[in-house]
Amino acid sequence: MSDFELPPIESVPTLSTTERAAILDSLFEPCTSLHTLSVELLHTETFESYDDMIASIGVQLQYLAESPSTSDTEWLDTILAVHPRLGEKKVESVQSQAEQAQLNTGGEAAAILLQRLNEEYEKTFPGLRYVYERNF
Q: What pTM was computed for the model?
């Protein structure tokens, strides 16, 4: 796992572009397209918590999803495509490492099932990854 620690939320707007991109990379998968979308938001807005910040980024993503523009849809697809497949061993973000650790406890049979489900999903929705949200 990474040694990166999130800075205090109140300091985020004062950080450099590189530091704000590192925050995005630790919370999401590293993605230049996400940097382009959200690094400026982290500079211009203040947030009460990281949950609030993530929700604001979610609003940006939702805007792309609802946009009639093909380029916005492609932009969103690029961001979503960096999410690892369920059960993948090599992932970049700390968040995904924790998610994958929970999924990779079922042994070989579960790994084969996840691989099959990933393939089925990607065949149905080319270019996208199945994203599993677990409420803790």
A: 0.69
